[in-house]
Each structure stands twice: as structure tokens, then as C-alpha cells.
Design a protein that fits this description.
Layout: E1 9-10, E2 16-17, E3 21-31, E4 34-44, H1 57-62, E5 66-68, E6 73-78, E7 81-86, H2 89-104
């Protein structure tokens, strides 16, 4: 494993967030028998967000995923045919609203001048 320096990330709220570390984890897409797996490197951050994990383009490319955001659908090839994962409109809206609320309720930063 290559030890790279981890640079700060821009959070959804616009703040700079310094990752705590990184970890390689397995990701399973779909359910048996139309299931595929891959490993991906995840950055660990300590900040409030509506998301548990964000899967990057590299993992999606490795599993040859085809995305249709409008249909909330992802398809990918497996040994037993085409696998599919469907999103849930209500869950997607709830997650988005939660993310907006956490940004809106954040107190303004105060600066002190000398």
C-alpha cells in the first residue's frame, strides 16, 4: 500500500475538512445471484452529513456500472445476468432535505480582530 499524503476536502457545506485517515473496504452491488463485488479506498472524515458513504467513479467504473440518475437506477453486469439497484424517490428527497437542514442550522462563524 502506498502511503500518500491526504489533502483537505471541500465539504457539501463549503468548509474545508481534513480527513482523519483512509481505509480499503469491500463493496457489494446487488443481491445474489446478480451480485458483484469490488474493493475501494475510502477517506474517513469527521463532519456531519446525511450520507454514510460516497462511492466514487473508480469503483463504479470497475464494476462497469451504468447510471440513470433520472430513473434512480444503476445497472451492472454479473456472471448471472444484469444486476440492478433502484433508488427510492422518498428516501432520496428525505436525505437531501436532511443535508440542507444541517447546513442551514449551522451557526455563523465569528471572526475576532485585534
Amino acid at each position: 500500500m502506498v502511503n500518500r499524503q491526504i489533502t483537505p476536502l471541500l465539504s457539501f457545506s463549503g468548509d474545508l475538512v481534513q480527513p482523519v485517515g483512509s481505509i480499503s473496504l469491500p463493496i457489494a452491488f446487488g443481491v445474489a445471484p446478480r451480485k458483484t463485488m469490488t474493493y475501494d479506498q475510502f477517506l474517513i472524515v469527521d463532519c456531519p452529513t446525511a450520507y454514510n458513504v460516497i462511492i466514487g467513479r473508480t469503483a463504479l467504473t470497475r464494476v462497469k456500472a451504468h447510471l440513470s440518475p433520472h430513473m434512480l437506477l444503476m445497472k451492472f453486469p454479473t456472471r448471472n445476468g444484469t444486476g440492478a439497484i433502484r433508488g427510492d424517490q422518498l428516501s432520496a428527497r428525505t436525505c437531501y432535505a436532511t443535508a440542507l437542514k444541517s447546513v442551514a442550522s449551522k451557526p455563523p462563524m465569528e471572526a475576532m480582530t485585534l
